[in-house]
């Protein structure tokens, strides 16, 4: 796993979620109670952008249908989502936010919107 700089700490203010990229990997980076978190950017329910959602006491809320995900584990806290989102480790050093991802995460681009099915 390698940590990649994604933002300045000030670009992720308390209570906000923002979209950032590690190469092709799209992440939602949030700050709650002073701590920065990074997750995949698509809800596992219907692929809505989590970076368009809101932080709530229990975690990251999806703006489309109200699913909430735990920022530490990615587990769904409130439905309709039943599948977890991917979480990535975060470090902050010298006013910079770094997200830890594996080479496989970056190559795959991480969880993305579903592709239409044939037929």
UniProtKB/TrEMBL annotation:
InterPro entries recorded: Rieske_2Fe-2S (IPR017941), Rieske_2Fe-2S_sf (IPR036922)
Superkingdom of this entry's organism? Bacteria
Protease as UniProt keyword: no
Which PROSITE patterns does the UniProt entry name for this protein? RIESKE (PS51296)
Any one Gene Ontology molecular-function term assigned to this protein's record = metal ion binding
Sorted alphabetically, the keyword list is: 2Fe-2S, Iron, Iron-sulfur, Metal-binding
Q: Iron-sulfur: present as a keyword of the record?
A: yes
PANTHER family for the chain: 3-PHENYLPROPIONATE_CINNAMIC ACID DIOXYGENASE FERREDOXIN SUBUNIT, FERREDOXIN-RELATED
- Mind telling me what this protein is named? (2Fe-2S)-binding protein
Species of the source: Aeromicrobium chenweiae
């Amino acid at each position: 796993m390698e940590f990649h700089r994604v933002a300045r700490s000030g670009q992720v203010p308390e209570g906000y979620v923002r979209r950032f990229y590690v190469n092709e990997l799209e992440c939602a980076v949030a700050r709650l109670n002073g701590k920065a978190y990074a997750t995949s950017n698509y809800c596992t329910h219907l692929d809505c952008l989590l970076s368009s959602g809101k932080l709530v006491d229990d975690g990251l809320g999806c703006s489309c249908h109200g699913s909430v995900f735990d920022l530490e584990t990615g587990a769904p806290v409130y439905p309709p989502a039943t599948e977890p989102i991917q979480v990535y480790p975060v470090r902050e050093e010298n006013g910079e936010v770094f997200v830890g991802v594996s080479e496989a995460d970056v190559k795959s681009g991480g969880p993305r919107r579903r592709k239409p099915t044939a037929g």
